[in-house]
C-alpha cells in the first residue's frame, strides 16, 4: 500500500489556493484553513479537508505550510495556535518578507514547539507554480528540506540555499530586482509605442512577441553575458574596441528622455539610471561599459565593492 502523504495549509489566497490545488490533485490528504471561509469551500469542493481552526489545521499533519499576505498576518495567525498541536511538526513558510521577519517567524515557531522551520521563496505565479522551470528557494532546517525535496517536485524546482534563513528572502529580492527591471523597460517602451502610429489593436502583445523577445533572446542576452563576465572579473573596459561606453550611453539616455517628453511621456523610470551613468562618468568611467554602474549602486559605507 502506498503511504498517504499529508499536508496542512494555512492561507488560501491566490498562492495558497494554487499550492492546495496541486497537493489535492496529486492525491495528498490536504487539510486547509483560511481566515475567510468562502475560499475553504472552494478547495473542499476539489477534495481538501476543512479545519475549523488554525490549531485543528496544524494538528492534522506533520507538515504545515503557511502562505499569507505578509509576516504580520503570519504572526497574528500563529498567535492563535495551541502549542500542543504544533509539537513535533515542521513549519514551511512561503510568505514573502525580509530576513528580519523570517527570523521572527522562526522564533515564534520554536516557541510554539514546532520541531523545525523552513523558509521558502516562491518565484512563480499561481499559473506557473508546478512547472519544472519555476523555482522555490529554501533556507533553514536542512533535514526537513531533504525529507520533502523529492515529493515537492510537484511544486516546481526546489533549491536549498543553506541553514541561514536570510538567504531565502534575499534571493527573492534578487530575482524580483531582475524582474522589475525588465518589466519597467517593457512598460516604458510599450507606453511610447502606444502613443504612435506604430500601435494598433493587440499591438502590445505582438510587439512583445515579434520584436522584444527576439531582441532580448539574441542581442541583449549576449550583452548581459558580457556584463556578467565584466562584473565577475571586475574589469569594465572591453579591449576589442566593441561595446558601448558610458559616454555614448549618457547621450543615448538623454535622447530617449527628450523623445519620451516629445511624445507626452514622463521619464521618471529612466531618470535615475541616467543619474547613475552621469555619476560614474564624473568618477572617470566614461570609457567603461554600463556594467561599471555596479560600482555606484552601493550605498556609501556598505560592504559591497
Ligand atoms: N500571487 C503571486 O503571484 C505570488 C507569487 C510569489 C509569492 N507570493 C507570495 O505568497 C504570499 C501570499 O500571496 P497571495 O497571492 O496568496 O496573496 P492573496 O491572494 O492576497 O492572499 C492573501 C492571504 O492572506 C490572508 N490574510 C491577509 N491578511 C490576513 C490577516 N490579517 N490574518 C489572516 N489571514 C490574512 C488572506 O485571507 P483572506 O482570504 O481571508 O483575505 C489570504 O489567505 C505573499 O507573501 C506573496 O508575496 C505570491
From TrEMBL:
Residues 164-297 form the NADPH-dependent reductive aminase-like C-terminal domain. Residues 7-157 form the 6-phosphogluconate dehydrogenase NADP-binding domain. This is Uncharacterized protein. The keyword Membrane applies. Keywords: Membrane, Transmembrane, Transmembrane helix. One of its GO terms (cellular component) is chromatin. One of its GO terms (biological process) is transcription elongation-coupled chromatin remodeling. One of its GO terms (molecular function) is nucleosome binding. Pfam families: NAD_binding_2 (PF03446), RedAm-like_C (PF21761). The chain crosses the membrane at residues 165-187. InterPro entries: 6PGD_dom2 (IPR013328), 6PGDH_NADP-bd (IPR006115), HIBADH-related_NP60_sf (IPR051265), NAD(P)-bd_dom_sf (IPR036291), RedAm-like_C (IPR048666).
Amino acid at each position: 500500500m502506498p503511504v498517504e502523504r499529508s499536508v496542512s495549509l494555512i492561507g488560501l489566497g491566490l498562492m495558497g489556493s494554487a499550492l492546495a490545488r496541486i497537493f489535492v490533485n496529486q492525491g495528498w490528504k490536504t487539510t486547509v484553513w483560511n481566515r475567510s471561509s468562502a475560499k475553504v469551500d472552494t478547495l473542499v469542493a476539489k477534495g481538501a479537508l476543512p479545519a475549523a481552526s488554525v490549531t485543528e489545521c496544524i494538528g492534522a499533519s506533520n507538515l504545515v505550510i503557511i502562505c499569507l499576505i505578509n509576516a504580520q498576518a503570519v504572526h497574528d495567525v500563529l498567535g492563535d495556535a495551541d502549542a500542543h498541536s504544533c509539537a513535533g511538526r515542521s513549519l514551511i513558510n512561503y510568505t514573502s518578507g525580509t530576513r528580519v521577519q523570517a527570523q521572527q517567524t522562526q522564533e515564534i515557531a520554536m516557541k510554539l514547539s514546532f520541531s523545525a522551520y523552513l523558509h521558502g521563496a516562491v518565484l512563480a505565479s499561481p499559473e506557473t507554480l508546478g512547472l519544472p522551470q519555476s523555482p522555490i528557494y529554501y533556507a533553514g532546517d536542512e533535514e526537513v528540506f531533504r525529507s520533502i525535496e523529492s515529493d515537492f517536485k510537484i511544486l516546481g524546482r526546489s533549491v536549498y540555499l543553506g541553514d541561514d534563513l536570510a538567504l531565502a528572502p534575499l534571493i527573492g529580492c534578487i530575482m524580483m530586482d531582475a524582474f522589475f527591471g525588465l518589466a519597467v523597460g517593457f512598460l516604458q517602451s510599450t507606453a511610447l509605442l502606444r502613443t504612435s502610429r506604430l500601435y494598433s489593436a493587440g499591438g502590445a502583445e505582438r510587439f512583445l512577441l515579434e520584436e522584444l523577445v527576439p531582441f532580448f533572446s539574441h542581442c541583449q542576452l549576449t550583452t548581459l553575458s558580457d556584463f556578467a563576465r565584466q562584473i565577475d572579473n571586475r574589469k569594465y573596459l572591453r579591449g576589442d574596441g566593441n561595446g558601448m561606453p558610458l559616454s555614448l550611453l549618457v547621450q543615448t539616455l538623454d535622447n530617449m528622455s527628450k523623445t519620451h517628453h516629445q511624445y507626452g511621456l514622463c521619464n521618471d523610470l529612466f531618470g535615475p539610471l541616467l543619474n547613475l551613468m552621469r555619476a560614474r562618468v564624473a568618477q572617470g568611467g566614461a570609457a567603461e561599459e554600463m556594467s561599471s554602474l555596479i560600482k555606484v549602486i552601493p550605498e556609501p559605507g556598505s560592504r559591497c565593492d
